[in-house]
């Protein structure tokens, strides 16, 4: 695993990506996402799911953040369907799948094979000569710091497996995990 970790860090360095968190002064994860200008759909989804205040909380949180282009690549009508208030539980499930509790910097990510999201599902992490992937999405930028966590940018929206009836939780149960 050390060989893969060293390789992944070398890939990140040659791509001009920092392997150390860059902490934004006085900006939480939500404000960093807003300021970046490339996460408008993610921010709109967080608002629709009532998760903004949670991600403005103390944390720390690690967010695998899909770009606007990643959301645009979903099948036509998917984003609109998820943003429909009738589908709030599904939206919360998708969004919480992108969040891992704690601060997981890129140096830590490359040493993992999976991470458990705040929604309770495991996210698969793979490291290869091509780079780092989370559930098949490429990690394209790492260690964007915030006062309450860190953001790693991904090029696709990752989706949790459909929950069974036993695994289905209410929004209140998920919110209480924070």
Order of helices and strands: HHHHEHHHEHEEEEEH
Query: How many domains, in number, for the residues?
Result: 1
Helix and strand content put the structural class at alpha+beta
Please state the average pLDDT score.
83
Question: Segments where pLDDT lies below 50 for 5+ residues?
Answer: 1-23, 164-178
- Secondary-structure arrangement, i.e. CATH architecture: Roll
The shape is globular
CATH topology: FAS1 domain
Provide structural commentary.
With 178 residues, the chain is of the alpha+beta class. It has one domain: FAS1 domain (Roll). The chain is 36% helix and 22% strand. A 7-stranded mixed β-sheet has the order 2-1-7-6-5-4-3. Helix 3 crosses helix 7. The relative contact order is 0.21. The N terminus and C terminus are likely disordered.
TL;DR?
The chain has 178 residues and is α+β, with helices and mostly antiparallel strands. A hairpin with a 2-residue loop joins strand 6 and strand 7.
Protein traits:
single chain, 178 residues, alpha+beta, FAS1 domain, 7-stranded mixed sheet, 7 strands, 22% strand, disordered N terminus, disordered C terminus
Topology at a glance:
Layout: H1 2-14, H2 29-36, H3 40-48, H4 52-55, E1 61-66, H5 68-72, H6 78-83, H7 88-96, E2 99-101, H8 106-109, E3 114-116, E4 122-128, E5 131-134, E6 137-146, E7 149-154, H9 171-176
Parallel strand pairs: 1-7
Antiparallel strand pairs: 1-2, 3-4, 4-5, 5-6, 6-7
Helix pairs in contact: 3-7
């Amino acid at each position: 695993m050390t060989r893969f970790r060293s390789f992944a860090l070398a890939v990140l360095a040659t791509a001009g990506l920092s392997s150390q968190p860059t902490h934004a002064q006085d900006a939480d994860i939500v404000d960093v996402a807003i300021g970046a200008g490339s996460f408008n759909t993610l921010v709109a989804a967080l608002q629709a799911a009532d998760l903004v205040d949670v991600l403005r909380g103390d944390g720390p949180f690690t967010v695998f953040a899909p770009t606007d282009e990643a959301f645009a690549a979903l099948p036509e009508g998917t984003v609109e369907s998820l943003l429909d208030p009738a589908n709030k539980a599904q939206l919360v499930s998708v969004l919480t799948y992108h969040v891992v509790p704690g601060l997981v910097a890129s140096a830590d990510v490359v040493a993992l094979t999976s991470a458990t999201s705040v929604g309770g599902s495991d996210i698969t992490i793979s490291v290869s000569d091509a780079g780092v992937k989370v559930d098949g999405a490429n990690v394209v930028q790492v260690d964007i710091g915030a006062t309450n966590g860190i953001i790693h940018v991904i090029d696709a929206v990752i989706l949790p497996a459909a929950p069974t009836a036993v695994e289905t939780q209410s929004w209140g149960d998920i919110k209480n995990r924070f």
